[in-house]
Amino acid sequence: MKKITTLLLLVVSLLFSSEMNYDKNTTGLVRHMKVYKYPKWAAKIELASGEDIYFISPKSMFEFYFRPGKWPEFNIKSESDFKNIYVTDYATAKTVKAKGAFYVYGSNVTSPAGDDLVPFDSYKRAEEFSKLHNGKRIFGFREISRGLINWLNDSL
């Protein structure tokens, strides 16, 4: 009974999370796939304008973050136009602030966007995952570059 109660609480918290409130109609910006189909990979950027932009993976979110001008309809002029950035912790499926997360590069786990960065809320969890899944390196948010995202996309 305790396991069922815990599972129900987890499901309810995921469904009603204030950070990730997508539904079956929410489409990721970069790859135009339905976000709800990939809940372990979901990411979101809240703009200062009040608009929310969803992504099917951290890599897709970083693609937008590094090149917002590719989507001029959002009128991003500076870093201050980004209010909050969220990713989903791969181990717990909880929403975490992207700038405080740790990202495993080079593992044998891929997202719907292909080679990706696997996010975790703690370095310890990222390290454990990296060891189990042949990760090559763990990055903090500020260590991730546009070049790395291009590399993951094979577009050097």
How would you concisely characterize the structure shown here?
The protein is α+β, with helices and mostly antiparallel strands and 156 residues long. It has helices spanning 2-15, 58-66, 123-132, 146-152; strands at residues 43-47, 52-55, 82-88, 95-97, 102-105, 118-120, 137-140.
Question: Your description of this structure?
Answer:
- This protein is α+β, with helices and mostly antiparallel strands.
- The protein has one domain.
- Helices cover 26% and strands 19% of the residues.
- α2 packs across α4.
- The longest helix has 14 residues.
- About 6% of the residues have low confidence.
Tell me the strand order in the biggest sheet. Answer: 2-1-3-4
Mean pLDDT across the residues is 90
Count up the helices: 4
- Overall 3D form: globular
Helical coverage, percent range: 25-40%
Output the helix-strand order. Answer: HEEHEEEEHEH
Measure the end-to-end span.
53 Å
Sheet-strand content, in percent, reads: 15-25%
Low-confidence stretches: 8-17
Give the count of structural domains: 1
- Total beta strand runs: 7
Largest sheet: 4 strands, antiparallel
Rg (CA only)? 15 Å
* Derived structural class: alpha+beta
Which keywords apply here?
156 residues, alpha+beta, three-stranded antiparallel β-sheet, 4 helices, 26% helix
What is the fold's blueprint, element by element?
Elements: H1 2-15, E1 43-47, E2 52-55, H2 58-66, E3 82-88, E4 95-97, E5 102-105, E6 118-120, H3 123-132, E7 137-140, H4 146-152
Antiparallel strand pairs: 1-2, 1-3, 3-4, 5-6, 5-7
